Amino acid sequence: MTTNTRAQQTINTDRLMASLEELGAIGAYHDEDADVMGVRRLALSPEDAEGRRLVRKWFEEAGLTASTDAIGNTYADRMGLDPDLSPVMSGSHIDSVPTGGKFDGALGVLGALEVIRTLNDHDITTRRPLTIAFFTDEEGCRFGTDMLGSAVATGRIPLEQAYALTDADGKSVKDELAAIGFLGDEPVGQRRPAAFIECHVEQGPSLIHEGFDLGAVTGVQGISWRKLTITGASAHAGATPMSFRKDPGLAAAKINCRIHEMCASGEYGPDMRATMGVITPEPGMINVIPGRVTATVDLRNPDDDAMRRAEADLDAYQQEIAEQLQVTIDSQQTARTPAVAFDEAVIAAVEAAARVQGLKCRRILAGAGHDAQEWSTVCKTAMIFTPGLHDGISHNPRELSTPKHCADAVNTLLSMILALSDEAGNA
Ligand code: GLV
Ligand code: MN
Ligand code: MN
Fold first, then answer.
1. Beta-carbon neighbours within 5 Å of ion ligand 2
2. Any idea which fold 5-221+339-421 has?
3. How far, in Å, is the centroid of ligand 2 from the Cα of 102?
4. N or C: which end of the chain has fewer CB within 10 A?
5. Domain range summary for the chain, segments of one domain joined by +
6. 306: Cβ–Cβ under 8 A, 6 or more apart, which residues?
7. What is the pTM of this model?
8. How confident is the model over 184-228, as pLDDT tens digits?
9. Percent of the chain with pLDDT over 70
10. Which atom of ligand 1 is nearest to the CA of 147?
11. pLDDT tens for residues 396-420?
12. How far apart are CA 321 and CA 309, in angstroms?
């Protein structure tokens, strides 16, 4: 694949940043700890709905034909010179974690929209049709499973299984899609693009620390999520001798220590990461031994074999702790994706496009999960990373990329979309 040389159009950076600001104002809140404005746009919440309506309106104002599928993914199509060819697709998500920033996901959706707006400005029709999109519940924070919309669209998760997922209040994905008006009528599983390319903020420190302008993403590491419900016996904190206790809080603490020790041991490779992001004791009182603790474990590893060993060893440790502390541990796998390698030719084309623009680019493995990993199972795929300030902090209101960094990434996205959409083929 060669990068497009027919034109040197560049995107409108002010327009891109203004759109990021406008979307970022939906679900905005003042974060006390960081003392900055953050974004809270949980999947299928009223804020997500408002963001969806705004972006869908922008899609339509750009002359695109928008449609929503049965899991709420929203696609917008632009005709190509050869409408029989399968399209090039670009997109990401607009849901956020409860304490998120303006860039995670939004840059990929609004970057793709900015590419379309730029093509419109220059009256360019590509050979292949183009599709831009936002996908439902990439974050997985509310319903427990990440990349939900793209996983359903590409066939990894059955629609009915996704519909049945519930949030902490027992509300189902299907009911909430209907409630926000995004239970669409397009059947899932019909979209099979020729290529998928997603632009995203790195969400880690590598690019900014090493002075790179851009990352050509080689793939995504494996992810394994589990939810633990640990049940013991609630009792008086002062009157219950230590030997009489069945304390699920202690069990959660020991498991949390264990996953960190597993990372430090090097036994599961040098890049294992582990987080216990939820630890919720009930009743949650200073002077009551909790009767139950709900906790989550998030494991990441670029090596699938090492991940499997870590999962098995953690299973065994949970059993050991349950016996030792006389608690029961119900362990449910809530999400699991293997490591993904993106398409070598598309990665190389990202590097070439960066070179043409004089950008310093390095190859990088994604630490976070992304919609692109789901699309990589149905078509050739790659991603473009932009550096983030403040050590690349993300899933945090301080998440920030400069206009220059965003523009570099979206100009590279523009080159890539032009190159991929010029490619010949029967499909
Ligand atoms: C999604 O952002 C994830 O990697 O958890
Ligand atoms: Mn994201
Ligand atoms: Mn995220």
1. 104-105
2. Aminopeptidase (3.40.630)
3. 11
4. C
5. 5-221+339-421, 222-337
6. 268, 269, 272
7. 0.95
8. 999 999 999 999 999 999 999 999 999 999 999 999 999 999 999
9. 97
10. 1
11. 999 999 999 999 999 999 999 999 9
12. 18
Q: Is the CB of 139 under 6 A from ligand 1?
A: yes
Ligand 1 neighbour 114 (Cβ under 6 A): no
The answer, yes or no, to whether any atom of ligand 1 lies below 6 A from the CB of 335, is: no
Ligand 1 in reach of 311 Cβ (< 6 A): no
Segments of 136-212 assigned E as strands: 195-201
Say yes or no: do domains 5-221+339-421 and 222-337 share a fold: no
Sort strands 380-386 and 195-201 into parallel, antiparallel or unpaired.
parallel
| 369 within ligand 1 shell (Cβ under 6 A) | yes
Residue 243 alpha carbon to ligand 2 centre in Å: 46
Q: Name the residue type at position 103.
A: F
Q: What atom in ligand 1 is closest to the CA of residue 203?
A: 2
Provide the 10 A C-beta neighbour count for residue 339: 19
Q: Which of 37, 150, 111, 31 is nearest to 385 (CA)?
A: 111
The structure tokens listed for 412 are 């590279």
Centroid of ligand 1 to alpha carbon of 213 (angstroms) = 22
Cα(303) to centroid(ligand 2), Å: 21
**Statement: 222-337 belongs to CATH 3.30.70.360:** yes
Q: pLDDT tens digits for 382-400?
A: 999 999 999 999 999 999 9
